[in-house]
Amino acid sequence: MKILFVCPSKKLFNNPFIIELSSAMKKLGYQVNTSVSEFWKHPYNYDIIHIQWPHAIFNFSTPTTTEIIQLKKHFDNIRGQVQLIYTRHNEKPHYNNDKNLRECYKLVEESVDAIIHLGKYGIDELKKRFSQTQHFIIPHHIYENIYNIKISKKEARTKLHIPLNDFVILSFGAFRNIEEAQMIIDSFKIVQIPNKRLIAPSIGQPLNLYVRRRNIFKWISAWRKSFQLKRKHIYFSKKFVEDKEVSYYFAACDVVLIQRKKILNSGNLPLAFYFSKVVIGPNIGNVGITLRETNNYTFNPNKLNSITSAIEKAYRSDRSSIEKANYLYAKEKFTLNKIALMHINVYNLKSATIIQYT
Question: 322, 296 in Cβ contact below 8 A?
């Protein structure tokens, strides 16, 4: 079986989700390629074409109207000749309401043979909209071969110059808009916890170019505020955190706070579980469902007191028991080999070991 992930190559798109999953499938004996040009030029060379993010088809740029027309024709030509699979990471593009990008997502959903959902949220709605499409649930895998969970909290805090007795909250990954940054800063400022410290490496980095163009002055203001608050135990970084450093951030923290106001899925949740960390996140999408089912902590992202309440509950909780349960949950549900096999079952349209909605 030959499988194509429609994404830029590793040199251009160093995403651990794709890197780990494709590596696991190769170890199982399958041929896996990651390419955008192969999707357009040589689609018939593959048995499976798997789309993870619709706009990856256009190298993560916003497509033109002409390109959308070309995509529709391409789907019309290859549909039925190769098996088309789509993993629904997001309900819609992040903070980019461009009509062509929305149409790109719509075309992908309408054209594929099967949709993989990372959790239960929204699957019934999609089942009604696309009743002829097969629907499967496969969770987000953990990055077992990239991050080191054996680093102790003491070792990590020594490296990052964090006092051992501080209560450390980690908000990891890009902040997609000013509202997310403001939500985290404001909730941290007023939460009633002694020796508190927030690690938010990307809070001063406007990584989303679409947001940057629209809100550059707000981002500058937020970055300055973050700098001023560094003396008040908020830590941030001016540069991208390399993979080899990520493990230290997760090992050093007491809890992981997912900083999203709008969300369907988050790779930080399984990663935090893998590192045996308590997780606090928005009560939205699959994130909210998983956190509720595992006795972690949720909040309403539109209510500041809800966020601070969740943080304070996590602080007062018996974190050791939740940490142990989270790790065991990750090892049971999210291991890389298990997730890779579940994908292969979908490719073969075998549903014995996964949830299928028909």
Answer: yes
Rounded Cα–Cα distance for residues 316 and 115 (Å) = 40
The enclosing H or E element of 117 equals strand 114-117
Q: 8: helix, coil or strand?
A: coil
Transcribe 162-189 into DSSP letters. --TTSEEEE--S---SHHHHHHHHHHHH
**Interatomic CA distance for residues 327 and 341, integer angstroms:** 21
Hey, is 137 helix, strand or coil? Answer: strand
Residue type, 193: I
Local confidence pLDDT in tens for the 358 residues of the chain? 999 999 988 655 678 899 999 999 999 999 999 999 999 999 999 999 999 999 999 999 999 999 999 999 999 999 999 999 999 999 877 667 789 999 999 999 999 999 999 999 989 999 999 999 999 999 999 999 999 999 999 999 999 999 999 999 999 988 888 888 889 989 999 999 999 999 998 776 654 444 444 555 555 555 555 555 555 677 777 677 888 899 999 999 999 999 999 999 999 999 999 999 999 999 999 999 999 999 999 999 999 999 999 999 999 999 999 999 999 999 999 999 999 999 999 999 754 344 443 3
